[in-house]
Amino acid sequence: MTNATPNDPIEFHFDFSSPFGYFAAQQIDELAARHDRSVLWRPLLLGAVFKETGVRPMTSIPMKAGYAAHDLKRTARRYGFAWTMPESFPFSSIAACRAFYWLDGRDPDAAKDLAKALYREAFAEGREIATSQAVVTVAARLGHDAETVDAALKNPDVKERLRVAVQEAIDRKIFGSPFFLVGEEPFWGHDRMDMLEDWLESGGW
User: Fold this and answer.
1) How far apart are the first and last CA of the chain?
2) pLDDT confidence of 55, banded at 50, 70, 90?
């Protein structure tokens, strides 16, 4: 049994190219608030993780792709989420992650707002967020200076922060999106959020 410690935040690890990460992003803050927990949002790059695990995206496997498309639509309907699969999928999330970590160093709440906006752009509106320009455009809508954001995406320190964050995730055996940690207790997948909440409610088992 691993006990839930009341002071532990919920770590929310996700890739911006992960549809189930998008679903989780709609719910994790409310879930945490019900248990007086904070949430640490931590984007990662599944491409780097998959190189370690040898896993391929389900949508890239013909036998699974049809089911995946059906299940994503069904899940969106089940929870009432806006849903449109981007035309280009999966897509690079490097620029989105860099923007997040740059802003997180200044204002974590603003970084979270940007993450939610980027997710909505991709999976609610079906627009691409793979390019730096797309990310800058979304950030500018939230009131961030476009030139400043664009410069941040090219900043070596920001690039290094993302590299370190991804390596730390791999070192901690975070292998999917969404992936949640409370202390050292791991939960993988949007479909484990009910279990995560039960575990917080009970104090662990």
Assistant:
1) 5
2) confident
